[in-house]
Amino acid sequence: MATEMTTTQHYGQWQVYPGNDPSSLALPDYYSIYLSYTLDTTTWPGRGLQITGKFPFARYMSVNVYGARTGSSLGALTDYQITTQSPNINPFVAGNNEDEPNREYSFNVEPQSDSPPAPETGAAQENLLTYDPNSLFNPAITDQKLALLTVIIRYYVPKPSDDGSYGCVDPPKIQIYKLADGPLEAAPPGYPTQMDINKTTFQNRLAPIFQTVGPDNKLRVYHAAGGGQFNNADNI
């Protein structure tokens, strides 16, 4: 069945899932924040996404692209792998200043295609994640009508902020473009992030993890075996 991930929080164009909230279901990890955006590629076929933001002030950041109906990662970038354009500096690269003020990045997500990236996007090939559009469908479902692509950005141990921001940076900007003949346009509102899964089975898999928390009731770091639960391919 389709299970919408529970959240009432938004950050710009992103849905927000606090890792210390058990209602996040698939995503909990006490010291993390998850930013999720889901594109209905059925309505917006042949489109790429360009995501531009600033590296958070945090211990770690990663990007994963998922087939939302399966919860499986189709590709990932670790923070230090994301290249920047001068004068920006990636603070996660060893030896760089962690407090560097010029810390903007950009990456692109595209369906696999014979067409080159749209020149108007300025897509950096090294920051390009591609996916097979067929991987957005769950083969166990015969009547599915939507091909949903989900992008999740993770911040681990983000610096606390007094202004309500996460990692002390603004939410990343999401833009959409047609392959090979852009230009960039504002991305449509995100489709609610969901996965097709038996909720009871899923909760039974993760519920025991919450029973292991310490006396301070904080769920810290864990590795849940099995796929299909928005696993982080970067550190699996």
What does this structure look like?
It is built from one helix and 13 strands. The protein is mainly β. Strand 11 (173-178) and strand 12 form a beta hairpin. The longest helix has 12 residues, at 199-210. It is globular. The two termini are 26 Å apart.
Number of continuous helical runs: 1
Give the CA-based shape: globular
The strand line-up of the biggest sheet is 2-3-4-10-6-7
Q: Mind describing the biggest β-sheet?
A: 6 strands, antiparallel
**How many β-strand stretches?**
13
* Poorly predicted residue ranges: none
Distance between the termini: 26 Å
- Report the C-alpha radius of gyration, rounded: 18 Å
Structural class: mainly beta
Question: What sequence of helices (H) and strands (E) makes up the elements?
Answer: EEEEEEEEEEEEEH
Beta-strand percent range: 25-35%
State the share of residues found in helices, binned by percent: under 10%
Average pLDDT for all residues = 82
Integer count of domains: 1
Task: Please describe the structure with a list of short key phrases separated by commas or semicolons.
single chain, mainly beta, 6-stranded antiparallel beta sheet, 5% helix, 32% strand
Write the layout of secondary structure elements.
Layout: E1 2-4, E2 9-11, E3 14-18, E4 32-40, E5 47-54, E6 60-67, E7 72-78, E8 104-111, E9 128-131, E10 148-156, E11 173-178, E12 185-186, E13 194-196, H1 199-210
Parallel strand pairs: 8-9
Antiparallel strand pairs: 1-13, 2-3, 3-4, 4-10, 5-8, 5-11, 6-7, 6-10, 11-12
